[in-house]
Amino acid sequence: MIDHRHHFDEQAAQWDKDPKKIERARRTAQLIVDTVQPQGNERVFEFGAGTGLVSQTLAPHVGTLTLADNSHGMREVITQKISAGTLIDAHLSHSDLVGGKLPEEKYDIVVASLVLHHVADVPALMAAFSSILVPGGVACIIELDDAGGKFHAHIDHYDGHDGFKRDSFEQSLLGAGFTEVQFHDAGKIEREDGEYSLFLANALTSKNG
After folding, report:
1. What's this model's pTM, rounded to 2 decimal places?
2. Which of 52, 66, 110, 159 could tie 139 with a disulfide, CB 3.0–4.6 Å?
3. 14 exposed, middle or buried (CB, 10 Å; 0-12, 13-18, 19+)?
């Protein structure tokens, strides 16, 4: 993974004080609920969970939540929320999907919200998502549409991805073992330098395993 963890360590304590981040997470989770239509007993794994804002909104609609993040600061906030009961039926995972340390459990839903553009080898991570899902499971990936280099232009020496083209993103998911991909518009990030559109890709695994 492209190592931006120190940036997120520094932001973790203040992350939930930004109403735009809270609202974006709420809308993201609601879109996942609307498009996946969970039954209430699903095992969910959120990769790059940050402070767990998306999982907080998902919690009433699913079964158990497993959260993973490589930022120490974010993990501390998640732990505090679990202890306080803010995150219900949740626990913190110390797996490392990018480093090849996969959880032993299998999940019905994998969620990754605005994480993949920080990852160097995106197809390998997609394959890891596929491998930890049960047959018929779904990976719900929220990402930036291709921003033509503009979204991260303010960050010196940014070495991640500046969004993704949906057609090539779909081909990467199919190449990683998923059998079907459904795209949904997921709103926009509004900044002083413009608006940046988001998508939700629901990637389904084969029901036959």
Report:
1. 0.88
2. 110
3. exposed
